[in-house]
Design goal:
Layout (H helix, E strand, L loop, with lengths): L1 E3 L5 H12 L4 E5 L2 H5 L8 E3 L5 H8 L4 E4 L6 H18 L3 E7 L11 H13 L3 E7 L3 H15 L1 E4 L5 E2 L4 H13 L6 E5 L5 E2 H12 L4 E4 L2 H11 L4 H13 L9 H6 L6 H11 L1
Parallel strand pairs: 1-2, 1-4, 2-3, 4-5, 5-6, 6-9, 7-11
Antiparallel strand pairs: 8-10
Helix pairs in contact: 1-7, 3-4, 4-5, 8-12, 9-10
Length: 285
């Protein structure tokens, strides 16, 4: 049986739905009954567990052959603790293999707020003795659309501390496809895959693509990191101002520019081009 955590979230629910439609024995894990209600329409068994309660995690993981561990977010200290609890509980419960969602930006030199969280989880996973597969995700195309393009469509300007930085965005739909494939496959044990889009784009190119797709003038303007942080502190609650600002620093250092062929290796097709992703999102709006 394959258990998918974060089953009420976008990626987790998409992975669960794909595996169920392919005929796999699956179950979804959520944190409470309210979240369970949001996945009942899939008709799959649901397990409820609290990431801060090891015993509840161990109960949820019993009898699981493969665990699709969709990473959490929030306060970094809390998330690091919860990831450790889940990996330890899965090991104790005898899970056959953990398929873990990580990020491409895991180098010790990275300033990104969440990098230590993922680096710690990967280290724990490799030391656990449990079989594993790690999928390191690049920057989500959906993140760029939600947080940077949509405000820019309204204002006409995408102002970020990124100058000539490039990113290779990948859509969450493609990430879900990759996780479903890795969970179902028998030849992914002990392997790390990097999931990126098929091309790296500058933010001027991203702004131009947004302008074409949404038929609105969108201009990219590079601003100082301090100015971006000041704006983020006005607009967001912690930890997000520092998470977003440190993400921009990582992007500016080229940590999200790498293009990997691992997605195509897994799926036997390329990931969606960024402008095609935008066109699909525009059609759905």
């Amino acid at each position: 049986m394959i258990l998918v955590t974060g089953a009420s979230g976008y990626v987790g629910s998409a992975v669960l739905r794909r595996l169920s439609q392919e005929g796999h024995a699956v179950s979804g894990m959520v944190g409470n009954f309210r979240r369970a209600a949001s996945v009942e329409d899939m008709g799959v068994p649901i397990r409820i567990a609290n990431y801060d309660e090891r015993a509840s995690l161990e109960r949820a993981f019993r009898g699981v052959e493969r665990l699709v561990f969709v990473a959490r977010d929030g306060n970094a200290r809390a998330v690091m603790r919860q990831h450790a609890n889940a990996i330890d509980a899965a090991t104790t419960a005898g899970v056959g293999r953990i398929v873990f969602m990580s990020i491409t930006d895991v180098e010790p030199s990275s300033a990104f707020y969440f990098t230590p969280v993922y680096r710690d989880a990967e280290r724990r996973l490799l030391a656990s003795g449990t079989k594993w597969t790690v999928l390191r995700c690049g920057l989500y195309a959906d993140f760029i659309l939600s947080h940077w393009i949509r405000p820019a469509i309204a204002s006409g300007e995408m102002s970020l501390p990124l100058e000539d930085a490039r990113v290779a965005p990948i859509a969450r739909e493609d990430v879900a496809d990759a996780f479903a494939m890795a969970a179902a496959a028998d030849d992914c044990e002990g392997k790390t895959f990097e999931l990126t889009g098929p091309a790296a784009h500058s933010f001027e190119e991203i702004a131009d693509a947004a302008g074409r797709v949404f038929a609105r003038p969108v201009r990219f303007a590079a601003i100082a990191p301090a100015d971006y942080l000041e704006r983020a502190l006005d607009e967001m609650a912690e930890p997000w101002p520092h998470a977003f600002s440190s993400l921009c620093k990582s992007i500016a250092e080229g940590r999200y520019a790498r293009v990997s062929g691992d997605f195509e290796t897994l799926l036997r097709r390329p990931a969606a081009r960024f402008e095609d992703f935008l066109r699909g999102a525009a059609a759905a709006m």
